[in-house]
Design goal:
Protein name: 4-methylaminobutanoate oxidase (Formaldehyde-forming)
CATH superfamily of the largest domain: FAD/NAD(P)-binding domain
Order of helices and strands: EEHEEHEHEHEEHEEEEEHEEEEHEEEH
Keywords: Oxidoreductase
CATH architecture of the largest domain: 3-Layer(bba) Sandwich
GO molecular function: 4-methylaminobutyrate oxidase (demethylating) activity
GO cellular component, one term: cytoplasm
EC number: 1.5.3.19
Strand order of the largest sheet: 6-7-5-15-16-17-14-18
Shape: globular
CATH topology of the largest domain: FAD/NAD(P)-binding domain
Helix content: 10-25%
Bound molecules: gamma-amino-butanoic acid
Distance between the termini: 44 Å
């Protein structure tokens, strides 16, 4: 039997940010991260669209995302190894929610809370929209909510930088799959791997993403989570846009941004919950007219490729579930990010590390995202879920 002080299940961005932050917070014990797929082929981090925004409607999401964005701004230098910067291609080209007459008042309300926490978001007019995206069709719009500090980055590079830095600090990564968490008298005692080996540890952190719900359910602690397929498309336009795009969200929910010279776009389709990575070209058909209506240059687009990833979707309130489980000592979770995990990973890792090392949050209060909120009927109602 192996022995550790902390076991983290899942080595994606959440698990790796947590492992790294534990070390940075002075945790000296043995930390093992079990990652079943070291190629990260199906990991939600690697398949994410990489949008980084602070424009949310709830205090906890705004604070957590703002903290994380500030980390990303200095990430390349801070995570450099042997003088080699950890480039993450963070392009602060802004985030833009386009609004109709109907949706603008809700965005105006969000703005007050965002500005209160120092987020430099602003309500922009149709004329402003034209200066941000000169080709935009604003005929049916009433303006938008824009934050120029926001943008997009390369999620895989962020995850790898956390992983490499954690390893340099002595965190062990083992390419094994955890079959179940072991418990005894109301506390965690370790994990059993699919290969039959057991590892003991007083603290287990479930960062298993889309597979995290199943792991929790096996020990009788179901969480309101479901994996949902999300497809992303990459296309070319013959007529290039004159300016780089912010990550732009159409009132229909279709979003798009530049990826080099190409455009990445996505949409949260209505799908049945389940593990499904099949990318279908035909799913793009309904998006094309929406894109062509919004930016006439997209009329003649050429769909090049795409991929499908999974949201670890919180079916109760579409927000992260973070912290120690109230019914099992030593069992911590960071799950349910519902498509906004990349925007929060640095803050989540730090928060969990503080909670594990010191028994409380110090830098950022993430209590609103606690596991117990479902039983307490104290949900976090967030209006800005894409
Ligand atoms: N979740 C896809 C990217 C858009 C957003 O949530 O900001």
């Amino acid at each position: 039997m192996g022995k550790a002080d902390v076991i983290i299940v899942g080595g994606g961005v959440m698990g790796s940010s947590t492992a790294y932050s534990l070390r940075k917070n002075g945790f000296e014990g043995r930390i093992i991260v079990f990652e079943k797929d070291p190629t990260y082929k199906y990991c939600s981090t690697a398949l994410s669209a990489g949008g980084i925004r602070q424009i949310y409607s709830t205090s906890v999401n705004i604070r957590l995302s703002r903290f994380s964005l500030k980390v990303y701004e200095k990430f390349a230098e801070k995570m450099a190894i042997d003088g080699v910067r950890a480039e993450i291609d963070f392009k602060q080209r802004g985030y833009l929610f386009l609004a109709t007459d109907k949706t603008l008042p809700a965005l105006q309300k969000q703005l007050i809370m965002q500005n209160h926490y120092g987020v430099p978001s602003e309500i922009v007019s149709n004329a402003d929209l034209k200066s941000i995206i000169p080709e935009l069709n604003t005929d049916d719009l009433a303006g938008g909510l824009y934050c120029k500090e926001d943008g997009y980055l390369d999620p895989y590079s962020v995850m790898q930088a956390y992983r490499k830095n954690a390893q340099l600090l002595g965190v062990e990564y083992l390419s094994e799959e955890v079959a179940t968490i072991l418990t005894e008298q109301g506390r965690t005692t370790g994990v059993r791997l699919v290969n039959g080996t057991t590892y003991s540890a007083p603290i287990i952190v479930n960062c298993a993403g889309a597979w995290g719900a199943e792991l929790s359910e096996k020990i009788g602690l179901p969480l309101p989570l479901a994996p949902l397929k999300r497809q992303i498309y990459l296309f070319n336009t013959t007529e290039k846009l004159v300016k780089p795009l912010p990550l732009t969200i159409d009132p229909t929910g279709v979003y798009f941004r530049h990826e080099g010279d190409q455009i990445v776009c996505g949409f949260s389709e209505d799908v049945k919950p389940g593990i499904d990575f099949r990318w279908r070209r035909s799913s793009f058909d309904p998006l094309w007219p929406i894109l062509a209506h919004r930016v006439p240059n997209f009329e003649s687009l050429k769909l090049e490729s795409g991929w499908a990833g999974l949201y670890n979707y919180n079916t109760a309130d579409q927000n992260a579930i973070i912290g120690e489980h109230p019914l099992l000592n030593g069992y911590f979770v960071a799950l349910g990010f519902s498509g906004h995990g990349m925007q929060q990973a640095p803050g989540v890792g730090l928060g969990l590390a503080e909670l594990i090392c010191n028994g409380k949050y110090e830098t950022l209060d993430l209590t609103p995202l606690r596991v117990g909120r479902f039983a307490e009927r104290d949900l976090v109602i967030e209006d800005a879920i894409v």
